[in-house]
Write a structure and sequence with these properties.
This is Energy-coupling factor transport system substrate-specific component. The chain is mostly helical. The protein contains eight helices and no strands. It has helices spanning 10-13, 27-58, 75-84, 89-105, 113-130, 138-159, 166-198, 205-208. Mean pLDDT is 88; it is low at 1-19.
Length: 214
């Protein structure tokens, strides 16, 4: 009787179904995720200042239309999840961004912004989890943006707009989701592809296949 050795071919090694994914965070994952969170938090500081006058222009057109501005606070989690590709990345980067924005720039909403950061990060995180942290194509990025937009809507309506009219709530949810899809989802995915082309993400799977087909 002869035993037949099992050969590992290049095709079997490249099979995404058979290849085991390592979800353990490396030091470089923590460092890059932290950079994303801090940089996003600084952008949040600017957006906090810009959102009030912009919202003042949108509200008279249709109450709830200011939800279109929501994507400016949602991209951190989506971008972090797309780049790091590990469980918890979207939640970590979004929550860290909210913390940095509160700590450095301050805001009119106080520490409750951390609640928003937590829920918005979870909204994106749940979408990546539904795909078992194994699919990062454009449509998944858009869905993650939508998930963050839904989370933003729920949090804002409970914390800032309780008892609002049905028209306001419907408009705010629709515009928040649209903003989440376009800004947090679409722009984050384009940013990922741009970074991948520069070689800046060469130590990440997102950098190695960031230019793959949609």
């Amino acid at each position: 009787m002869h035993a037949t050795p099992t050969l590992l071919t290049s095709s079997s090694l490249s099979n995404p179904v058979k290849a085991a994914r390592n979800f353990r965070w490396r030091v470089v994952d923590i460092v890059v995720a932290s950079i994303i969170g801090v940089a996003s938090g600084l952008i949040f500081v600017v957006w906090n200042q810009a959102s009030n006058p912009l919202g003042g222009l949108l509200t008279p057109l249709l109450p709830g239309l200011q939800g279109l501005l929501g994507g400016g606070w949602l991209f951190a989690g989506v971008l972090g999840g797309l780049i790091i590709r590990k469980p918890g990345a979207a939640l970590y980067t979004e929550l860290l961004a909210a913390f940095v924005a509160t700590l450095i720039g301050g805001n009119a909403w106080g520490s409750l912004v951390l609640v928003s950061g937590l829920t918005q990060g979870l909204g994106a995180e749940l979408v990546f989890a539904l795909f078992l942290y194994g699919n990062y194509r454009a449509y998944v990025a858009l869905l993650a943006g939508a998930g963050a937009g839904i989370a933003l809507t729920i949090t804002d309506l409970l914390l800032w707009y309780p008892g609002s009219a049905a028209l306001f709530m419907g408009t705010y949810m629709a515009t928040s989701i649209i903003s989440g899809v376009v800004v947090a989802g679409g722009l984050s995915w384009l940013a990922l592809r741009g970074l991948a082309r520069t070689g800046a993400l060469s130590r990440f799977a997102s950098g190695r296949d960031g230019t793959a087909a949609v």
